[in-house]
């Protein structure tokens, strides 16, 4: 494939990327029409805004681990965090943040919550663990008849083919990770109290060859098949678990059976109007900076500056569309990280353009100068950006939610800035220099 043909194909690819990402980034508005034929614009993807941008509440809980053994405390607090996270998700909170601290506290950030008291009550409830037995065929048939008009798939309906028993989390003494002595695969061992021992014995006796489902907070977490009656109050759940999956299941079971008491010690509400004001000020600051930056690039680097501004627009669309797709919860610190990444993207273009100008001054042709300029600038761009990415990884891993948001948006932006500088800017520059007017030296800021 010739160099010219390859450049044209890359240019078409860039146009497709620009159009598709711009579509994703634009806000949903069913009233907008693409053309006179009445094609409506639909876009259900939206930005996920954090607590400081859309308002909400910040809760701090203190865990009571006085009744938990020292070696089990870490697992207990993580179990409670897992339960709280699933509860606020079920409450419909957008991108909740639930974190644990070294002093056994849990920080819960609920963005966009209108009924704070209801959310607090839901978080404070005892996790609900259930053991259910499989329905008979007549009961399954009756259930299918109830939902036959709803066109519900059989595989989805199957999770409701279980009926309640008297056995629940209050009869579970504890759960532990063990390893099968024959296969050495991880499995989960359950130990019931006296009442649970009798109930579990009755359930397994009448369900040999059938399934017994374990539900936590209304969702099935394990559905093992009963091979034989279990009357000693002990049960084993096996099912091709990985070690991490077995630990997670034990954590959830213990959290359901032995919830750690938590007390609300702090509550802070962020007004939605303050969040909206922060968004508006951030947009004004970002747009003003972008305009001034664009003017500087165009005035100082002329044609290359125009190309840099176009590449910067495409780069911004790509990054923002990724924020929607992943999705990334945007906070003020996250927006700051994104704006900083724009500056880093422009910095890469400046390094390239200066190198190109140096090569032109040495008397090299435009095409050779562009290739040499990009090649010579790449080492500096790569080294500086990798250093920034390493810093972002450290901040994201060890930082709090505010610092983590900054690190993630900055890290994503820096990675994509290398793609923008090397692929988008270079392709656009080659396309322009294919024309006669695009090869004039004054457009590169160089005199003959």
Folded structure, characterized:
- Helix 1 packs antiparallel against helix 13, helix 3 runs antiparallel to helix 4 and helix 9 packs parallel to helix 11.
- The protein starts with a helix and ends in a 15-residue tail after the last helix.
- It has two domains: 217 residues, Up-down Bundle (Multidrug efflux transporter AcrB transmembrane fold), CATH 1.20.1640; 215 residues, Gyrase A, domain 2, CATH 3.30.1360.
- The radius of gyration is 30 Å and the shape is elongated.
- The strands form four sheets. It has a four-stranded antiparallel sheet with strand order 3-4-2-12. A four-stranded antiparallel sheet has the order 6-5-9-10, covered by helices on one side.
- About 3% of the residues have low confidence.
- 31% of the residues are buried.
- It has 448 residues and is α+β, with helices and mostly antiparallel strands.
- The protein is built from 13 helices and 13 strands.
Secondary-structure blueprint:
Layout: H1 3-25, E1 48-49, H2 51-54, E2 56-63, H3 73-90, E3 97-100, E4 105-111, H4 116-124, E5 129-134, H5 137-146, H6 154-157, E6 162-168, E7 172-179, E8 186-192, H7 194-205, E9 212-216, E10 219-222, E11 234-237, H8 243-257, E12 262-270, H9 272-301, H10 303-325, E13 329-330, H11 332-361, H12 366-398, H13 401-433
Parallel strand pairs: 1-13
Antiparallel strand pairs: 2-4, 2-12, 3-4, 5-6, 5-9, 7-8, 8-11, 9-10
Helix pairs in contact: 1-10, 1-13, 3-4, 3-8, 9-10, 9-11, 10-11, 10-13, 11-12, 11-13, 12-13
